[in-house]
Design a protein that fits this description.
Strand order of the largest sheet: 7-6-3-4-5-8
Strand content: 15-25%
Order of helices and strands: HEEEEEHEEHHEHHHH
CATH class of the largest domain: Alpha Beta
Number of strands: 8
Helix content: 25-40%
Shape: globular
Structural class: alpha/beta
Number of domains: 3
CATH topology of the largest domain: Nucleotidyltransferase, domain 5
CATH architecture of the largest domain: 2-Layer Sandwich
């Protein structure tokens, strides 16, 4: 066990996954080999071990599903922080949105025709993982509701499919209950300013040309006491609010 963290860190940082097998039988009562079982699968987007996470940066798992007519449904989860969000973008803006969120792992259906930027943890899944009707059943079961009328965006099949693919993937890999994913929120692009990767780089929002990121806007403003506060500040700077009232409340 003492060497596990080091190996896991190397694997997930290369975009790989690792199955964790643990002894489940009692050596005192077992005859021969003690039974072992895969208890979870660690992937780049589902890593939650505190010792392996960058304290001040989110590690997101994201899923996308083409909805036709130039629209794409998105869903993303910060498993360690318990945040579950969905959105919808035009196909032309998909690459920019993926670059903004910078997921550690991206789920997409096999045979997709979407133009994607390079993502280290790209996972192509069979199309049935993105079935909107199966997604509705899985989401209702998870949130213990009769329907999804209380969740904004779930009337859009592509958004629902992306959210369902995320939930199914997390269940398959983590093999445990997920009570901390207690809500699902729709993010509206109209509520915020859209800054693409080039704009954020020129404005030195998160990085600095010198390579010393402490000289970036984030580096100068980040006086947060906790890592969670730093992660929130990074989200705010990546997507500044338009609404003056909401800004005042911050």
């Amino acid at each position: 066990y003492h060497a596990l963290d080091g190996y896991l860190a190397r694997l997930v940082n290369r975009g790989e996954s690792a199955a964790i097998c643990e002894q489940i039988g009692d050596p005192a009562t077992s005859k021969g080999l003690v039974e072992r079982q895969v208890t979870r699968i660690v992937t780049p987007g589902t890593l939650t071990d505190e010792g392996l996470l960058e304290e001040r940066r989110e590690r997101l798992l994201m899923a996308i599903c083409s909805g036709g007519k130039g629209r794409v449904g998105l869903g993303w989860v910060d498993l360690a922080g318990g945040r579950f969000l969905v959105s919808e973008v035009e196909s032309a803006g998909l690459a920019s949105e993926i670059e903004r969120l910078a997921p550690a792992e991206l789920l997409v259906a096999e045979g997709h025709d979407l133009m994607l930027p390079e993502v280290p943890g790209l996972r192509e899944l069979p199309p049935w993982h993105f079935d909107p009707e199966a997604a509705a059943r899985a989401l209702c079961e998870h949130f213990q509701t009769r329907d999804l009328s209380g969740f904004e965006g779930m009337e859009v099949p592509a958004i629902r499919a992306a959210a369902g693919a995320l939930l199914g993937y997390i269940r398959d890999t983590q093999r445990m209950a997920l009570p901390h994913l207690a809500s699902l929120r729709m993010e509206h692009r109209s509520e915020t300013l859209h800054l693409d990767a080039t704009t954020r780089r020129h404005l030195e929002v998160e990085t600095h040309p010198s390579g010393r990121d402490e000289r970036s806007l984030l580096g100068l403003l980040d006086q947060c006491t906790t890592a969670a506060g730093s992660r929130m500040l990074r989200r705010w700077l990546r997507r500044p609010l338009r609404c003056h009232q909401s800004l005042g409340q911050r």
